[in-house]
């Protein structure tokens, strides 16, 4: 995160405020700071989903997006192949490919070599997360935390820097570095402002991109390269977050000096979606496609049947109404899931309790075999469990074929029992 005094030469002037993104006096467009960095290194940074604009070399690695440290070791291990889970950013909130796994889980955080107010502010930041009842919680410890918050002299206007995003094993990076120098946060900043900066950097460690990823000029003022993405690489949107700019999100790229940004409603939706807040309703009411993790095929009412008993299969997604589903939260952790084309709901035929019980569509009657618990798996996918049997929605035999039958089966965490729920 960055800030500087806004000056009269900025294209967008914000009177009396400080922002994290530098506004520099320019007689011509700014030149990216990555000109001396090897092209292969930039391709690897891009492959990881980070912007390649203004990348800077630093001891042991590189700094991307102003506050993300990428180690030389991590880049050596990165291959250059397209990521299927990244897309061009638009305007929702965004997450990274990897998230924290092993939920429910407690992440320990320590604070070293910083003034006492930084520990107090860390406690406030932690309390903001823990108050949401997520399956991911935080605890401050005296030393040796899984994430260590430490002092670093980062230069004028730079407030903090995260070591990156969760790794492929689902663990957070460390450390978070904070600039307690007079040209950064200082030794005695406003405690809620400091808590907001810390909560922001913690957000990166658990998989959040900037809310204004697609256009950081929204919070930072003018920039010659407003999209943090590069060459079509974006980020994974979080369903249920707004389709327009969000002026108060804790994950905006820049912030006014002294500002306090506790989580707003959209932030809470995003955190609940990724980390199953309260373990109840992680998917907002709405219309979605349901995609099998193992095959990439969509949940489909076979042959667009409108009859009770129409069988449910998987099929290549074609955007048709018999592949679209309306989620309606019923309370107590359960949903009805209705086909857009027929209005009938997912149903375990005959209220079977055995493995292999057939899944069909049927007129909604409110019974247990028509209600589904939706639980986050911690990797962006979900399991759907029938209320009456507690068995999972499953593609029978791990079929990869169009027409593969969908049944219920005891949940084992395998890919043919995990589903992406993606908004239409």
From TrEMBL:
It comes from the Bacteria. This is M57 family metalloprotease. Keywords: Hydrolase, Metalloprotease, Protease. Transmembrane segments: none annotated. Residues 285-422 form the Ricin B lectin domain. InterPro entries: MetalloPept_cat_dom_sf (IPR024079), Peptidase_M10/M27/M57 (IPR024653), Ricin_B-like_lectins (IPR035992), Ricin_B_lectin (IPR000772). One of its GO terms (molecular function) is metallopeptidase activity. The keyword Methyltransferase does not apply. The keyword DNA-binding does not apply.
């Amino acid at each position: 995160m960055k800030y500087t005094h806004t000056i009269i030469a900025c294209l967008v002037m914000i009177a009396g405020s400080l922002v994290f993104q530098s506004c520099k006096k320019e007689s011509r467009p700014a030149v990216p700071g990555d000109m001396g960095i090897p092209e292969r290194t930039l391709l690897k940074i891009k492959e990881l989903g980070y912007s390649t604009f203004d990348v800077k070399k630093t001891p042991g690695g590189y700094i991307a997006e102003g506050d993300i440290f990428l180690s030389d070791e991590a880049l050596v291990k990165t291959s250059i192949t397209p990521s299927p889970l990244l897309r061009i950013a638009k305007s929702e909130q965004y997450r990274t490919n990897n998230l924290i796994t092993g939920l429910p889980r407690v992440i320990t955080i320590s604070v070293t070599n910083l003034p006492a107010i930084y520990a107090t502010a860390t406690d406030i930041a932690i309390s903001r997360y823990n108050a949401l009842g997520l399956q991911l919680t935080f605890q401050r410890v005296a030393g040796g935390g899984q994430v260590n918050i430490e002092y670093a002299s980062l230069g004028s206007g730079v407030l903090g820097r995260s070591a990156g995003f969760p790794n492929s094993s689902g663990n957070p990076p460390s450390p978070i570095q904070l600039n307690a120098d007079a040209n950064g946060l200082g030794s005695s900043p406003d405690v809620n402002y400091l808590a907001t900066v810390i909560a922001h950097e913690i957000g990166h460690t658990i998989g959040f991109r900037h809310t204004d990823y697609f256009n950081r000029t929204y919070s930072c003022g003018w920039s010659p390269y407003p999209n943090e993405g590069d060459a079509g690489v974006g980020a994974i949107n979080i369903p249920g977050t707004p389709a327009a700019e969000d002026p108060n999100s804790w994950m905006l790229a820049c912030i006014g000096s002294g500002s306090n940004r506790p989580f707003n409603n959209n932030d809470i939706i995003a955190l609940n979606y990724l980390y199953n807040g309260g373990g109840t309703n992680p998917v907002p009411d709405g219309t979605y496609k349901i995609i099998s993790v193992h095959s990439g095929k969509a949940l489909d009412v076979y042959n667009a049947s409108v009859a009770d008993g129409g069988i449910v299969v998987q099929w290549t997604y074609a955007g048709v109404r018999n592949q679209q589903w309306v989620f309606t939260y019923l309370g107590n952790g359960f949903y009805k899931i209705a086909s857009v084309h027929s209005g009938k709901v997912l149903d375990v035929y005959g209220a079977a309790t055995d493995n292999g019980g057939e899944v069909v569509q049927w007129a909604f009657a409110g019974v247990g075999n028509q209600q589904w618990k939706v639980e986050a798996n911690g990797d962006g996918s979900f399991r759907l469990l029938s209320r009456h049997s507690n068995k999972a929605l499953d593609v029978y035999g791990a079929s990869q074929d169009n027409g593969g039958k969908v049944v219920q089966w005891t949940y084992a965490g395998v890919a043919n029992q995990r589903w992406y729920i993606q908004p239409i």
